[in-house]
Amino acid sequence: MFRSKAEKKVLELGYDPARLPAGQYLTEKWPVLHAGSIPHIDLDRWDFKVWGEVDSPLTLTWKELSALPTVEVTQDIHCVTRWSRFDATFTGVPWSTIRELVGPRPSARFAIAHAEQDYTANVPASFLDLEGAMLATHADGEPLTLEHGWPMRLIVPGKYFWKSAKWLRGIELSATDRPGFWERYGYHNDADPFKEQRYSF
Ligand SMILES: Nc1nc2c(c(=O)[nH]1)N[C@H]1C(S)=C(S)[C@@H](COP(=O)(O)O)O[C@H]1N2
Ligand SMILES: [Mo]
Fold first, then answer.
1. Minimum-distance ligand 1 atom for the alpha carbon of 167
2. How many CA atoms lie within 13 Å of 162's alpha carbon, on the beta-carbon side?
3. Across residues 119-132, what is the average pLDDT?
4. For 132-165, how does the pLDDT look when each residue is reduced to its tens digit (9 = 90+)?
5. Binding pocket residue ranges, ligand 1, CB within 6 Å
6. 125 contacts 163 by C-beta, under 8 angstroms
7. pLDDT in tens, 169-182
8. Given the CA of residue 33, which atom of ligand 1 is nearest to it?
9. CATH superfamily ID and name for 40-73+88-195
10. Ligand sitting nearest the alpha carbon of 120
11. Which of 44, 108, 115, 125 could tie 119 with a disulfide, CB 3.0–4.6 Å?
């Protein structure tokens, strides 16, 4: 059977090649990727908001957010620029906890992540109900580093990693979909790496 160089590496490292989506290669490092610069963040003025199609809009300070129970989930991440990293462990507040606090209305079909410097990423709200969807504060047991989204980033499991907004400041639940930062440049709305949903054209 024909195997690509990328697949051979996955096998050599002892992983199931089925974990590597088509057109991806495995990296053991964790590349840093974002548009623009790393924001300056003052935790004393930081807050996290959830608004839109919810019964109880929510604003949490860093202290309040940090007091919520957390989960730890290990998952593979896939960047549309073709690197994949296996077994990334994220710790954070599961979306299910936030969901209970805000009470999404039946009309809340889409979620738009809002990050520092107006970065946005849109997903069907159902993506946040997947196991491993969380507001992550830690990666591999350590607080996120600044360049990976400190103090908090979204993790949208199983989708290209641009959906996982770094420096997350809010989630808007919406009745209508609105393309986010990369989606406006033509990136695919649903971003499933196993269907190679990279671009919408
Ligand atoms: N706020 C913000 N979040 C972002 C981005 C960005 O430009 N700004 N880029 C996305 C892209 S394209 C990727 S691949 C991942 C990269 O995360 P990493 O730098 O931790 O690997 O962040 C995503 N989240
Ligand atoms: Mo990316």
1. 1
2. 28
3. 98
4. 999 999 999 999 999 999 999 999 999 999 999 9
5. 30-35, 79, 115, 119, 148-149, 161-162, 164-167
6. no
7. 999 999 999 999 99
8. 19
9. Oxidoreductase, molybdopterin-binding domain (3.90.420.10)
10. 1
11. 115
